[in-house]
Design a protein that fits this description.
Structural class: alpha/beta
Helix content: 40-55%
CATH architecture of the domain at 47-178 and 208-240: 3-Layer(aba) Sandwich
Oligomer: single chain
Strand content: 5-15%
Distance between the termini: 61 Å
Shape: globular
Number of helices: 8
Largest sheet: 7 strands, parallel
Strand order of the largest sheet: 4-3-2-1-5-6-7
CATH class of the domain at 47-178 and 208-240: Alpha Beta
Order of helices and strands: HEHEHEEHEHEHEHH
CATH topology of the domain at 47-178 and 208-240: Rossmann fold
Radius of gyration: 21 Å
């Protein structure tokens, strides 16, 4: 007597589990492809500066105009300029760098709202995954410049502070633009995080505050004047395993 082979139904838990595992495996290849594409596109851009800020800032806002000025100065100083590729401060950054001497780069993210690629990008890369995009912001940056922004901007700032603090990334200048905007956070770092022993007082040395575009470029060159922009073997290893 023959026994009919059991054909799994799509409602069976085992079938659903296997289907999910298959999707996850292919998703891993998609992530790898995204990483390889970004690495190949960006490997020649150094030295570079990543500049962040709100996607919601309008062109008539002082922060937009500040970002545009900073990006132009940074570009003319010989640094590729990296932004998130979207509107607001990101647009101002690419717009400022676009006519400059160095490439204007946008690392765009696919979002259900807010993000539309701005037209001022000479190198444009689209990401589906936030975490992969954040790796690229840090991997090739010789400095981080952060203007006022919301959760996304804070996320990028905390990411680089954590990577540098823990030694997973090389130390680079982290420059906050807008003393009035950032002072409350800096005070909280000192009065709460340091007071509670949650960070070291030396961790505050990672951050610089300014309100002047020219001071951004000066701070970057001052940091590298004795060490140069060439990565040491140790820094190259950190970059590889970031």
């Amino acid at each position: 007597m023959s026994v009919a082979k059991k054909i799994p139904k799509i409602t069976d838990p085992d079938f659903q589990a296997n289907k999910h595992t298959g999707h996850e495996s292919w998703h891993a290849f998609e992530i790898m492809a995204e990483f390889v594409e970004a690495t190949e596109s960006l490997k020649e851009i150094t030295p570079a500066v990543s500049i962040f800020g709100s996607a919601r800032t309008k062109p008539d806002h002082p922060c937009y105009q500040m970002a545009e000025k900073i990006a132009r100065l940074v570009s003319d100083a010989g640094f590729s300029v990296i932004s998130g590729g979207g509107p607001g401060i990101m647009e101002a950054v690419n717009k400022g760098a676009y006519p400059g001497l160095s490439p204007s780069i946008g690392l765009n993210i696919c979002l259900p709202f807010e993000q539309a690629n701005n037209p001022y990008q000479e190198v444009s890369i689209d990401f589906k995954h936030f975490f992969m995009r954040k790796v690229m912001f840090v991997k090739y940056a010789s400095a981080y410049v952060v203007l006022p922004g919301g959760f996304g901007t804070l996320d990028e700032l905390m990411e680089v502070l954590t990577l540098v603090q823990t030694g997973k990334s090389r130390k680079i200048p982290i420059i906050l633009v807008g003393t009035k905007f950032w002072s409350g956070m800096i005070d909280w770092f000192r009065e709460t995080l340091i007071a509670e022993g949650l960070i070291s007082p030396d961790d505050m040395d990672l951050i610089q505050l300014t309100d002047e575009p020219c001071e951004v470029v000066s701070a970057i060159f001052k940091y590298y004047e004795t060490r140069g922009f060439e990565l040491s073997p140790a820094d190259l290893k950190k970059q590889l395993y970031l």
